[in-house]
Amino acid sequence: MKLAIYGYGNLGRGVEAAIGKNPDMELFGIFTRRDPASVHSETGANVFSAGEIFRFKDEIDAVILCGGSATDLPELTPMLAKDFNVIDSFDTHANIPRHFDAVDAAAKAGGKLSLISCGWDPGMFSLNRLYANAILPDGKDYTFWGRGVSQGHSDAIRRIPGVVDARQYTVPIEGVLDAVRSGRQPELTARQKHLRECYVVAAPGADKEAIERAIKTMPNYFADYDTTVTFISEEEMKKNHSALPHGGFVIRTGTSGLHDEHTHRIEYSLTLDSNPEFTAGVLTAFARAIGRMADRGETGCRTVFDIAPADLSPLSREEQRRTML
Amino acid sequence: MKLAIYGYGNLGRGVEAAIGKNPDMELFGIFTRRDPASVHSETGANVFSAGEIFRFKDEIDAVILCGGSATDLPELTPMLAKDFNVIDSFDTHANIPRHFDAVDAAAKAGGKLSLISCGWDPGMFSLNRLYANAILPDGKDYTFWGRGVSQGHSDAIRRIPGVVDARQYTVPIEGVLDAVRSGRQPELTARQKHLRECYVVAAPGADKEAIERAIKTMPNYFADYDTTVTFISEEEMKKNHSALPHGGFVIRTGTSGLHDEHTHRIEYSLTLDSNPEFTAGVLTAFARAIGRMADRGETGCRTVFDIAPADLSPLSREEQRRTML
Q: Do A109 and A227 belong to one domain?
């Protein structure tokens, strides 16, 4: 199938590499809002200006949108969903219902199929929450993120006056993970689940105490957490903090038996060297499914919950049953 | 929905308890090949003779088959699949293709829907193998079982002359798990992955050395593994080995990036106090999906790969997106 990449940052580059790992996929081209001449693709892919995409309506099987959830995707996905099968990784959990409705209307109007909120959370973590809840209805689940770089929190620190660069690691608290695994089903506050480790490059002469205070008291982002702030040099930032690792855990414990006499634990965990490249792997697998489902005539918007796993695999259903079941 | 249980051993009892955890399900009755008058249900469910089930064709939404894979299910599932929506936990991996074809033909002939090989392996472990392979096509996956009781291996020991009772624990080798988690993708033999711990009650005067030799040299079951044999009393067996814990791990590691520069790990693990009761939880969740899909007019045989996760949850799709995505 022929895939297009719309937006060419870390995630777009990850999708480009992921397509190369799937022999049944081909990269039609990269669409960028920058000047295409200024964009270099290491694989030698065609680079087009974003607005040109509508010329290729009949040549592209699906478009993977690689923009940000804050401002890009709420506009882009509905805009493209009428003319293309599209897949996005919209991750603002609270706004998913509204985004879904907008994309669903556009896709239905154009007779196309869309998938939103695909990645690892939302995405694979969501799937594991759903499966585990269905299997163990009498239980409690917990999602932990990290250890890994939160781009949103890093950006929030960068907006503080006097900050040149910043990296924020979300760190699950190990002892609490053990308590969750025990099956005791503790009630946990945000502070009890995660630490926030911040590495900050301050401008020369900046008031470091004021920066540290501004971080630690920032509502939503840091005020509800134990937060550490470490000032480092630009060199150290580049040397030790330029990777984008991430990961986390979805754990559900629950009971069974007529008298709740047995306890079970289901745990799913990811340990990722590169958050955007792994997300790209999820996006391409689900793009395969969306292509197949669109070929069967399906239209409208879907989420990972609606996709039969068989449609993700390059193998035929017979091969899947023979080799993976 | 109204569910029937066909076969009333450990698994059937587990399904009975699992139905009680799902307010949208009701137990229509238990069908047994024993004398129904001799079968006691702790929940007070109706108990019928197996042959009576065809009288209730129009009253049962789905039948959960709780027989064994060796001889029961290859006959039972195709026999019932023509008149009922059926779910089984057929787990002889090598014979799945043949079983699928037989059940598919029967279900299509009767206009009914079936699901085979549902549980945790095959079942949830299979799903995790498939998802992980689709996301990380360039990688390697490993399945470890245990620590837990293998009923098949326990039965094999019980068939040795002089053995009164036996329990076999399959134990994953911890150091090897660490090597797998590292991403180095080792090639592993059966012996390197699992130990087999056997607890045996010998008849008075039995030749224990001969029993131990018979176990350790048994082809397929033990000869390819490091096996320990410990003789214990009947009292100790009853006191310390009457539970049926199990579990295991599905781990896939793989690389991404244009130059394979990043490694990722996906790990799914189960820690189960009761193998049959957890399997029952999986069966009831998938019975919900089969009921819904049958209502939409689907017929034939399915596996867990064919089921959209959304159909497993008692929540509406809107609620799923709002609360779990």
A: no
